Each structure stands twice: as structure tokens, then as C-alpha cells.
Amino acid sequence: MKDCWIPPQREAKAMQYVCNGYTMSLEELINGALFESQNEEMVIVRDIEQCSLCEHPMQPFIGKAHGAYIPTRRVLGEDSPSGRWLASYH
User: Fold this and answer.
1) Coil, strand, or helix at residue 7?
2) Helix, strand or coil for residue 17?
């Protein structure tokens, strides 16, 4: 049973990781990956790894999410910034 015990520091570190999107600024999310584009079609980003907390029991859930946007003169250049903007809204 001793191996099942989680030290408080480890628990705190896990909670900070799961909730890190709430502290990110827009500049951190975009990270310079915004590029000029003439594309006017919907951009879809699929299978973004996502973890969050259920509000009531504070239980973590892990899965994949999808996001989409219609660009106006600019697009996000990589999948990772797209995943970061999604993470900020979990």
C-alpha cells in the first residue's frame, strides 16, 4: 500500500500541469506562429491530446479534441500552437 501514496509535491505538480492553460497569455499561446494567408476556408485541427478536470469531483479526464476556425488574413502556422489555444479553454 505504501507504493500507492502520492507525495503532496507530486500531486501539486500534476494539478499545475493539468490546469496550466488558465495562466497562459495570448502571446504564449501563439508563440510567433501567426502567418499572413489568403486562405478563406475552414482550418481544422484534429486529434489534439487534451487533459482537463471535471469541475465537480475534480477527476482528471484525458482524450483527444478537435478544433476549427475560419481565418481572416492570418493562420496559425503549426499544430502545436493550435493545441495550445485549445488547452487554454479546457
Assistant:
1) coil
2) helix
How far apart are alpha carbons 89 and 1 in whole angstroms? 37
Integer Cα distance of 40 and 55 in angstroms: 36
Cell of 42: 475552414
Q: What is the pTM of this model?
A: 0.55
What gap in Å lies between CA 69 and CA 52, rounded to an integer?
Answer: 22
> Domains of the chain: which residue ranges?
2-87
List pLDDT tens digits, range 52-88. Answer: 777 777 777 788 888 888 888 888 775 555 566 665 6
CA gap 52, 19 in Å, rounded: 7
The contacts of residue 54 (CB under 8 Å, 6+ apart) are: 60, 61
Distance from C-alpha of 55 to C-alpha of 90, rounded to nearest angstrom: 11
